[in-house]
Design a protein that fits this description.
It is built from 14 helices and nine strands. By secondary structure, the protein is an alpha/beta fold.
């Protein structure tokens, strides 16, 4: 295939996506990344949207083989923030000029419908801020209640579009059920984000291509493609981490295929490569998600090993990110960073 002609195509099929993911020539890879950056500029502009994360609980009822939060990990010190603590941190994030709050936890049923609704409502009373929930699979009626309380977005990664691969590391969950949740969330009006992990054991380029195409099929508002990183004290602690270059190629192809979806330069990518966030932003990403979970909690949210910036002051992280973003000619957005699909519908 001619790389230049391929990159000009409006729509890529599965074989073409696999071909691009398999590029090994450095010049061709650079052409792919440059094209992704161009598509990002056309559809998303030069603003980078910051999402402030609060990891408010590291308890989890699931037992996924790769995750440090899995319930069988007895070595992990557990914590839960109180609803009022979460609200207080959210207001500090807003005061930093960040207008999306990501409320994230393991699948922790300790926080019932009303507690989460209280947190959402309390945060929304103070500012015009978007709230993203990342709480795993919850009851469909809870999703409805939280939407009414003011939640705007839901992040729930499908992790892999291959049902057999999904079953290999989820003891209690099924891919078709995860996809039902994604469909329902979209139906009731959430801006929905999903995505995969790159470098899972036995994963193929065809699997990654199917992940990208699944994100296109579901017309997702946000799609995250981050490398797999093994976590200590899990069955997969000795597995090989995902590849940085393949992650960047995946992000780039995803940008070309998905056009206007928000794509983050993930913390996992920055964990494997010191310059990972910048490289991700140059490969089509337009979102960064700094962690504002306060100490002593943030050190205990050990979903994988050696998480980037975990010991840094969140205020320093905000300033550092701004300098990095501006160093490549981009600027930090002062908006909520809603879905471009939502904005186009309004227009």
């Amino acid at each position: 295939m001619d790389i230049n002609e391929l990159l000009k195509k409006e729509n890529l099929n599965r074989d073409e996506i696999v071909y691009l993911l398999g590029l090994s020539d450095e010049k061709e890879i650079n052409l792919l990344l440059e094209r992704a950056d161009e598509v990002r500029r056309i559809y998303c502009g030069d603003e980078v949207h910051l999402r402030g994360i609060i990891d408010f609980s590291n308890y989890c009822e699931q037992d996924c083989l790769y995750c440090g939060l899995r319930k069988s990990n007895k070595k992990l010190p557990r914590y839960r923030m109180t609803p009022d603590e979460v609200v207080e941190v959210a207001h500090k994030i807003i005061n930093k000029g960040i207008f999306t709050i990501v409320l994230q936890s393991g699948e922790d049923g300790y926080y019932d419908t009303d507690q989460i609704a209280y947190i959402i409502y309390s945060i929304k009373q103070k500012a015009d801020v978007a709230i993203t929930l990342s709480l795993g699979e919850r009851d469909f009626e809870e999703y409805r209640t939280w939407k009414i309380a003011g939640a705007d977005r839901y992040l729930i990664k499908h992790e892999t579009a291959n049902p057999k691969l999904y079953a290999a590391f989820h003891e209690n969950q099924k891919l078709n059920e995860r996809l039902e949740h994604i469909r329902f969330l979209k139906e009731i009006g959430y801006q929905v984000g999903s995505g995969n992990m790159i470098g899972l054991p036995n994963q193929t380029l065809e699997d990654i291509a199917d992940d990208i195409l699944l994100c296109k099929e579901y017309d997702l508002d946000m799609a995250a493609f981050g490398p797999f990183i093994p976590a200590p004290d899990t069955p997969w602690e000795n597995k090989k981490a995902g590849d940085v270059v393949l992650t960047l190629k995946t992000m780039a192809v995803a940008r070309i295929v998905l056009k206007d979806a928000h794509i983050p330069a993930t913390t996992a990518l920055a964990t494997l490569d010191e310059d990972g966030r910048i490289k991700g932003l140059k490969a089509g990403a337009n979102v960064v998600m700094p962690d504002f979970t306060p100490s002593p909690y943030r050190e205990k949210y050990q979903i994988y090993a050696d998480r980037r910036c975990v010991n840094d002051n969140p205020d320093y992280c905000r300033s550092c990110l701004q300098l990095q973003i501006e160093s490549i000619g981009r600027k930090v957005s002062s908006s909520r960073g809603d879905s471009f699909k939502l904005l186009s519908h309004k227009n």
